[in-house]
Design a protein that fits this description.
It contains twelve helices and eight strands. It is α/β, with parallel strands linked by helices. This is DNA (cytosine-5-)-methyltransferase.
Length: 304
């Protein structure tokens, strides 16, 4: 990464808007929990991923783009009792940037939920930086509401009409997930699968993650499973034939806004496993298209 950063600073042309990314895993709730369980460092202490923000800072310092957009998990704000986020904001301030809605409290305009664009609850913190000499302190992400779609697509509209049967959970996996959720529910924990009824027009699924390839448990599609019968006789043959399925990679692409039904299909040239990882690690396209639309008039002003 350091070699790439050095080359980027030497070779890149004039940059109007920089859209760098640094890994979210060191700061996400799931990532921190996993690293704690394994006794590994997280946040800035993670030498593999956590320090990449400072490579971003070096690029900003060298190129001084008028604008930048940074995205990460919502938990970035609270990681290490807020110290991680404070360091990031202080660094950006020292580099000569104002961050839009920097002092925003609840609801924080910097935290954008994809559910306003697609039926997925996916909160991400978005830092829009504007070089201080441009004097655009009035820019706010609250104006993103102007780009909300008139109607959010339903989950049903994003599903394939005839998905491959390979996405149906095996009886063994479904029994494991069912018993696991039942056990934790009895303990008062929130761990469990997310079963979604596509017939519900207001259905909004959980966050698609890079681990989706493992079992798909966070977003399962209901195929008519009878919960009452499942409690009484889990192995009932007719009910087991209606066990849920996971999303296909194509449906994940739609849930992230890469693929739109009725338009030219988004090309997925990798295996299902890699596709699940890549879509789960990505951003929701219409969210950042809206951020770009907000910035576009200001970028055009620079050219004029």
């Amino acid at each position: 990464m350091k070699r790439y950063t050095a080359r980027l600073m030497r070779q890149s042309p004039i940059i109007r808007c920089c859209w760098p990314v640094f890994p979210c895993q060191p700061f996400s709730l799931a990532g921190v929990s996993k690293k704690n369980a394994l006794g590994r460092a997280h946040g800035f202490e993670c030498q593999v991923q956590g320090t990449l923000f400072f490579d971003v800072a070096r690029i900003l310092a060298a190129k001084k783009p008028p604008f930048f957009v940074l995205e990460n998990v919502k938990n970035l704000k609270s990681h290490d009792k807020g110290r991680t986020f404070a360091i990031i904001m202080e660094t950006l301030d020292e580099l000569g940037y104002d961050v839009a809605d920097a002092g925003a409290s609840s609801p924080d305009a910097k935290v954008i939920d994809a559910r306003h664009f697609l039926p997925q609850h996916r909160e991400r913190i978005v830092l829009v930086g504007i070089r201080r000499d441009l004097k655009k302190q009035d820019f706010t992400l609250r104006d993103i509401r102007r780009f909300y779609p008139a109607q959010v697509p339903s989950l049903q509209s994003l599903l394939e009409s005839s998905p491959d049967d390979k996405y149906i959970l095996s009886p063994v996996l479904w029994r494991y997930l069912y018993q696991y959720a039942k056990k934790h529910k009895a303990k008062g924990n929130g761990f469990g699968f997310g079963l979604n009824d596509p017939r519900n027009p207001d259905c909004c699924v959980r966050t698609l993650s890079a681990r989706y390839y493992k079992d798909g448990s966070e977003i399962l599609i209901d195929r008519g499973w009878d919960s009452a019968l499942g409690e009484a006789e889990f192995q009932d043959a007719d009910n087991m034939a209606r066990r849920p399925r996971r999303l296909s990679p194509r449906e994940c692409a739609r849930l992230m806004g890469f693929d739109v039904p009725g338009r030219e299909p988004f090309r997925i040239p990798v295996s299902d496993t890699q596709a699940y990882k890549q879509f789960g690690n990505s951003v929701v396209v219409p969210v950042f298209a809206a951020v770009a639309q907000l910035l576009l008039p200001h970028i055009r002003q620079l050219k004029s």
